[in-house]
Design goal:
It comes from Pendulispora albinea. The chain is an alpha/beta fold and 468 residues long. It has helices at 155-158, 165-179, 194-203, 224-229, 246-249, 265-277, 303-308, 314-320, 337-348, 360-368, 374-389, 402-406, 410-433, 438-445, 449-458, and strands at 23-32, 41-44, 50-55, 60-63, 71-76, 86-91, 94-99, 106-108, 111-113, 115-117, 123-126, 129-138, 146-148, 184-188, 211-215, 254-258, 279-280, 289-290, 294-299, 323-327, 357-358, 394-395. The strands form 5 sheets. The chain has a 7-stranded antiparallel beta sheet with strand order 9-8-11-12-1-2-13. A 6-stranded mixed beta sheet has the order 4-5-3-6-7-10, with no helix packed on it. The two termini are 37 Å apart. The structure holds adenosine-5'-triphosphate. Adenosine-5'-triphosphate binds next to helix 3, helix 9 and helix 11. Adenosine-5'-triphosphate (ATP) binds next to helix 3, helix 9 and helix 11.
């Protein structure tokens, strides 16, 4: 990034220390609706007194060298921003956003505000730019104070771009795990990108064999073992020829066992034997065949709980879970919505991605929609939007699926947001008071614990962050 006219330093040449603590407030520049491919940015607020937002000739984020110490300047080439648009100030241990007399105002959780005390997860709109505030995010002291998402490359590697420090660390660790033969268990809801991770592990592994993906839930129950381990001709009626089976086709490659929680009990035992002995015995064969497998398993089911209640073998679980990675649902990593949208647009429309833009209302809908189908649903949503846009370059709200549009019906959003904000602020206040003790919050509010847990999920509040 370039140096600003007023002497502010750029991202590249100014990265003050994030501070000593391992948790702290962060601001994410999630998405510029008029430039959805512009790289999103994470800003650590620790040690800062104030952030000043305004219009600049190009984007530049950095510490102010003159004037107030510990002041950060966020300049965007956004025509809807005023030259000094808003200030975010640390007052009495809270971050307060204040409109600095802007023409187009500041919107927090869908509501125009002259002043707002920010709470964890707040979505802030300044001009056409969307930010998310995180009050208490885990990070490492060595993390850069200002971090710009690396430009997504093509292929599976580009899909490992994230602004979330803990996820970034998990993804970085994958590179070294990939080179080993340790088995990997990937947990996450459907569509969160588990197969993307598995493919990435294979790509980074230098294993020369194939990547073979098996959906354990889709194997016909009575044919599981034949499909997996192969069979000899005549082993059963219909076995008219020798078949090597899926496991052997992954020899010297990577075996991706998707939906491993759906594997029937007898096949769990047989698979365990293969992993222990590193050999496969095809159905009807007298002698086993050696195999060199690297196993990556994935599940959307709570495998550990299945072990506890006896529906999944503990010894197989231990074999599979050499290294575990959990992919959060998209609604829990909204900070990455811009990163992921950029990757998807580049992949779906490589030639015209640079010229695409999102109408602010469309961007707002993407940010508020809960994405039950996770990244896959976002991908489908953008795919259909691009078809509807046709030769055009601007994705309008009307180009998005009805359910996504409904996240925004403006009056609804405004009403819901102000009610929702009150609910959320109350929760945050009580969590602070009770140091994250959900039972105590439930008692004070006269509600069931489960209800509080539902609200925490809805508002994406992590009670852990209050338990310091
Ligand atoms: N970070 C990302 N950026 C862009 N696209 C992504 C990302 N993560 C996942 N995708 C895309 O989302 C879709 C779903 O991903 P994937 O199949 O890996 O999910 P999954 O968790 O394995 O789903 P399931 O549990 O249903 O098998 C794929 O088309 C994938 O390319």
């Amino acid at each position: 990034m370039s140096r600003l006219d007023d002497g502010t330093l750029s991202i590249a040449d100014d990265a003050p220390d994030a501070g000593a603590g391992s948790r702290g407030a962060h601001l994410f520049l999630v998405l510029e609706s008029s430039k959805p491919l512009a790289p999103p940015v994470r800003i650590a607020l620790e040690g800062m007194a104030q952030v000043v937002f305004g219009r600049g000739s190009s984007r530049a984020i950095g510490r102010q060298q003159i004037g107030t110490p510990n002041q950060l300047s966020v300049r965007m080439a956004d025509p809807w921003l005023s030259s000094t648009h808003a200030r975010l100030t640390y007052v009495l241990r809270r971050w307060v956003l204040e409109d600095a007399g802007s023409k187009n105002g500041c919107i927090v959780q869908g509501v125009r505000k002259a002043q707002a005390q920010l709470v964890d997860g707040d979505i802030i709109e300044l001009g056409y730019t969307f930010f998310i505030f995180r009050e208490d995010l885990a990070h490492e002291p060595g993390d850069p104070a200002i971090f710009e998402a690396p430009r997504a490359e093509g292929g599976a590697a580009g899909k490992l771009s994230t602004l979330i420090p803990s996820l970034e660390r998990s993804f970085t660790r994958l590179a070294s795990v990939a080179k080993s033969t340790v088995s990997v268990l990937i947990e996450g809801e459907t569509g969160t990108g588990k197969e993307v991770i598995a493919r990435n592990l294979h790509e980074q592994s230098d294993r020369r064999g194939d990547f073979v993906a098996i959906n354990c839930g889709a194997l016909p129950r009575d044919l599981v073992e034949g499909e997996l381990f192969g069979y000899r001709r005549g082993a059963f009626s219909g076995a008219t020829e020798d078949r090597p089976g899926l496991l052997r086709s992954a020899d010297r490659g990577t075996l991706f066992l998707d939906e491993i929680g759906d594997l029937p009990a007898p096949s769990q035992a047989a698979l365990l034997r293969v992993l222990q002995e590193r050999e496969v015995r095809p159905v009807g064969a007298t002698r086993p065949v050696p195999v060199d497998l690297r196993v990556v398993a994935a599940t959307h089911r709570p495998l550990e709980r299945m072990v506890e209640n006896g529906t999944f073998r503990a010894d197989l679980f231990a074999r599979l879970a050499g290294y575990r990675i959990e992919l959060p649902p998209l609604a829990m990593r909204r900070e990455d919505l811009g990163v992921i949208t950029g990757t998807i647009l580049r992949e779906l429309a490589p030639e015209r991605a640079q010229s695409l833009e999102l109408a602010p209302r469309a961007a707002r809908a993407l940010l508020y929609y809960p994405w039950p189908g996770n990244v896959r649903e976002l991908e489908k949503c953008l795919e259909s939007a691009l078809i509807l846009v046709g030769e055009g370059t601007r994705i309008e709200l009307e180009h998005l699926p009805g359910a996504v549009q409904a996240a925004l019906e403006s009056t609804n959003l405004l009403r819901r947001s102000s009610e929702g904000n009150a609910e959320r602020e109350k929760l945050v206040t009580l969590l602070r008071e009770h140091k994250g003790n959900i039972a105590a919050v439930a008692r004070t509010m006269g509600k069931a614990r489960m209800q509080i847990q539902r609200w925490l999920k809805r508002h994406q509040i992590d009670p852990e962050s209050f338990r310091k």
